[in-house]
Amino acid sequence: MSENNYSLAVQHYACAQQIQSDDIVLLHGWGSSSQSWQPLIPALQDFANIITIDLPGFGASPEISEFTAHAVVELIATQLPSKCVLVGWSLGGMLAVQIAARYPHKISRIITLAANAKFVASRDYETAMPLVVNRQFNKGFAADPQATLKLFAGLTVQGDINERALLKQMRALPAVENINANWLQALELLARSDNREAFANLRQPGLHFLAEKDTLVPIAAAQSLRALNSQQKVQTISGASHALHWSQPSLVAEQIKNFLLPPLLDKKQVAHSFSRAAATYDSVAELQRTVGDALLKKINPQQDVQVVVDLGCGTGHFTPQLQAQFPHALIVGVDLAEGMLQFAQKKWGQSHLVANDLESNVNNLLNDSNPIFCCGDAEHLPFANQSVDIIYSNFALQWCANLPRLFAELQRVLKPNGELIFTTLGPATLHELKSAWQQVDNHVHVNQFHERDILLDDLHQQGFSEIELEHNPTVMAFEHLSDLTRSLKALGAQNVNRGRATGLTGRKTIQAFKQAYENFRSNNLLPATYDVFYIKAKRL
Q: How many other CB atoms sit within 10 Å of the CB of residue 342?
């Protein structure tokens, strides 16, 4: 077959409900076909359209003259939609990393299962399959493909907590009848593959699963992958083998869902958590004050400013400072947590709490010389269209999951050329805490935050211009882990994301978590990173 007319075998599975995610494209591993995704497809169909692709020479795809990385990547790229989530298992995962690196505009997120940065170990990368083992397997396949495939099926499930049952499932799959030259070429490609540079430079958010009992990709590769790119999430699955999506399909599917879908935030729970923390918030908010002071200095001097909103004002620390900066303007502190607002009212005395809708009252309050406070949600503000000159927000907008809705609402209330200036947290926030928990269980323990590119893209799409972003990661240090956790509790920054643990956490789990966090200790202190973004934008 001429490769100019070549076409890969592609299967489509429509989303069972209202689509919530980009299309998900699945790339299988060596020695299999798209049928290897059977355990995951139904769960993924709940929130996305699914596309499976048979690699050249595998499944229903004809073989090609030479199974090279360039040829295969180019063929797969022609089958991808304009934007998708790319998921790959083993060989498919290694190809997915190369595709994401070469076509970043097409891949919104990348997920790999049992895929290493290098499949075969070398002196400068030891957490991979030993060279002698790889050579022995490849020679065995060249001499006796059928016998080696039978061995391979056993290796994919070896060590799994459900090994016997999984082996029966694997052997029940349709027999392979189209073994061709591409199969050995694919093995040789695996032996040569080195994705370290591509993985280190991945720009898309990524989730990478490794299995505790994998005999082909050692679990120690988790640390190597994290060292290559700390922005990529590496998840280990306890008790699972190389075929981890056959071993624990429900867990893998749930983790993928948590990763792909926007965090589900219970606004009532957020408000309740911060209301309870009102009395203790200021005592532990050193970082918030430092960052907020720096943000104040970034506001451009302006004339004729009538209305300034301190969005997510909390205890009102910056609201009077905004009043001093704009003495002739109405300053409105808005917060979701009534407890915070009540504390702010008492703290600043003359300021008063406005409980009713402000939309019809702003003009009547313009001559008020003191800040006022109002309970409100950033995604549903109580202001008329084009009624606000400046929105200042310090560490509040990260609690809004739906960025398009949020920025559309802020754009609605701002006047033409009105300024939005805010700080928020990026995905590397508390990565030490996240990493320590990942070594203990599979629950979500750290709030999920939006990536830089997503923030910028959504601001632009909702009608903002002159967008500026300053990235300033800040590391705080604590003598004891309990000091950090008490600080988070005192701030009211509780974990409210989908996938969080419910119920009590056992003593052994807590102890394992503490030991895992100790690996980050430096100069006798435990670090906690806050991934701070300063962002300015103007309404068109």
A: 16
Q: Which of 23, 214, 389, 458 is catalytic?
A: 214
Catalytic residue flag (residue 480): no
Question: In the annotation, is 193 catalytic?
Answer: no
As given in the structure block, the two tokens for residue 262 are 């926007």
How far is 12 from 83, CA to CA, in rounded Å? 15
Which residue in 208, 242, 272, 431 is the catalytic one?
A: 242
| Planar angle of CA 250, 22, 202, nearest 5 degrees | 90
Q: Are 246 and 162 in contact (CB under 8 A)?
A: no
Interatomic CA distance for residues 370 and 348, integer angstroms: 9
Maximum CA pair distance of the chain? 89
How many angstroms separate the Cα of 213 from the Cα of each of 150, 385, 445, 491?
A: 19, 58, 24, 40
CA distances from 14 to 24, 45, 78, 258, 433 (A): 11, 7, 20, 20, 37
How many angstroms separate the CA atoms of 67 and 439, rounded? 37
Catalytic residue among 32, 34, 90, 275: 90
User: Beta 50-53 vs 10-13: how paired, if at all?
Assistant: antiparallel
d(CA 188, CA 192): 6
Torsions phi, psi for 495 (to 5 deg): -75, 115
Give catalytic status of residue 70 as yes or no: no
3-state secondary structure 7-48: CCCEEEECCCCCCCCCEEEEECCCCCCHHHHCCCHHHHCCCC
Q: Tens place of pLDDT for every residue, the chain, 540 residues?
A: 445 678 899 999 999 876 667 899 999 999 999 999 999 999 999 889 999 999 999 999 999 999 999 999 999 999 999 999 999 999 999 999 999 999 999 999 999 999 999 999 999 999 999 999 999 999 999 999 999 999 999 999 999 999 999 998 887 777 677 899 999 999 999 999 999 999 999 989 999 999 999 999 999 999 999 999 988 989 889 899 999 999 999 889 988 987 888 655 677 888 888 899 889 998 889 999 999 999 999 998 888 999 999 999 999 999 999 999 999 999 999 999 999 999 988 887 755 555 455 555 555 565 556 788 999 999 999 899 999 999 999 999 998 878 888 999 999 999 999 999 999 999 899 999 988 988 887 666 677 788 887 788 789 878 899 999 999 999 999 999 999 988 888 776 665 554 455 444 578 888 999 999 999 999 999 999 999 999 999 998
440-444's contacts with Cβ under 8 Å and 24+ in sequence apart are 440/509, 440/512, 440/513, 440/516, 441/501, 441/509, 442/235, 442/237, 442/238, 442/251, 442/255, 443/499, 443/500, 443/501, 444/258, 444/495, 444/497, 444/498, 444/499, 444/500, 444/501
Buried-exposed string 82-95: b where 16+ CB fall within 10 A, e elsewhere: eebbbbbbbbbbbb
